[in-house]
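Hey, I'm writing a tutorial for new members on how sequence and structure tokens pair up, and I'd like a real worked example in the thread rather than a made-up one. If someone can provide the structure for the chain below, I'll link this post from the tutorial.
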Amino acid sequence: MAERSTAAVDVADTSGDEPLTAKAEQATADGVAQTRERETAADEDAAETERPTSRGAPSAPELHSGHKLARRYRLEECVTRLDGFSSWRAVDEKLRRAVGVHLLPADHPRARSVLAAARSSALLGDPRFVQVLDAVEENDLVYVVHEWLPDATELTTLLAASPLEPHDAYQLVSQVSQAMAAAHREGLAHLRLTPSAVLRTSTGQYRIRGLAVNAALRGISSDTPQRTDTEAIGALLYASLTQRWPYEDDAYGLSGLPKDVGLIAPDQVRAGVHRGLSELAMRALVNDGATASRQDPPCTTPEELVKAIGEMPRIRPPEPAFTAPPEYQRTTYQQGTYGRTAAHPGVTQPVQAPPAPLQSRTGKALKWAVSALLIAALGLGSWQLADALMDREKSGDSGSTTNTTGGNDKGQPKPAKPIAIKDAQELPVGGSLQSPANVDNTFDGDASTLWRTKTFTDGPELAPYKPGVGIVYDLGSEKDVSEATAALRYSGDHTTISLYATDSLTPSGGIESMKKIGTAKTSSDSLQLKAKKPVKTRYVLLWMTAVPNSGPDSYYRAGYKQAITDVKLKG
């Protein structure tokens, strides 16, 4: 569902549209007026109830379930009806998939700005945002069609159960900040970045819906859009750490802060909150009167927030809980009492005497027979051994080192042992990174998390457009590296991965200056690489130069791409 229809969005005629204003100016913290809408729980995206429309505004079109738009989009369920527009869950009968639809009358005062916002968002094409698939004015209606992610969960729902773990909160703020920084570089702002606008997919990726469109539908604007979105990210992080909304009003199913107390740091609201994330939330919320630490300046743009996150120590996922196996208990059968009557408590059982030795004439004869057989077997074995040794001496093979006893394995190669990975960092190539916040997913032991490349138009070879993509792993100290395995998300074509020994997490030289450990190709979803001989190094570069072609999935569009779920090194 992640692929955006390539021919659906009409961008040819925008001469009458109002452009979406998302200025990238940065203002100082004092004396700057900014417009920010304070939301309440009753105004959430996913749980808004029917309301009377604003006075003078056109009423929402009276449509019903089963109505079709463009003889293609069948409306199924109305999820929002507010201020002259409505939002629906629908079905794209042409592609047989669920979609979302925003509807409003063509004469609505915000209809033109909604169209302009939808078309601008569609042109961005960033897979971290829920994609706009269609934006049309037709039959006195304006409608915007977007992706519907059935496997994703709103942040509102996640926080209703409990605060996020530190690693999850770190992933949230990292991914959302990077996505918004990319959007602002293209002149787009969200301006309504609430918990209901953030979704977490089944693979652990966070996606943002309603870029520019949600604000246009509600007529929200800002003179300082970067600061507005940065403060919203800070509020999301604050709520994720504390399960409280960082303002006095309750919102999105979360309780607000106590009245007349002001904004207090998350680690003072709830015990056990990660100190670095708490300070990060306060730096982003400084626009609303929060006090950042003396050493660290406030963050007023998503780009500054991304930089601040990059300067933090990486927060790793929790270690998987170890469950001890049940205590071994011998069964009745193993104890030798199978078929016996169980003893009654308190009753002493008689000790059975061992059977008497064979003292009869038959017993003596049997013992003599067994003794004779043993003597004959020993004599025959000694004769065969002596004969074999004599043959070897005659053939000049007395110096052979062949192990005949089977008890000495000094000549056998030792099996490779697993090597623990201590840290990792994506290798920037030409200043372009693929998914730096998800590098830890490749060695966290969780097959459901992953690191993924971007989607490329041509392939499978990435060159000449890009020499390759890679991750540098820190082993903590020098180790002999001889093997590597990688569990992959996509199969097909061929995936090519090489292993290099390098000098640091941020190598000083190019690929040509590194020592190659080995190369392997695969067309399946796993890859195994073995070196001719072990290479001693502390830092290992996993370098991918070819990726397969695969269809759209829940996060990326169709094209040449690859994802790594698990990397293991041995030596």
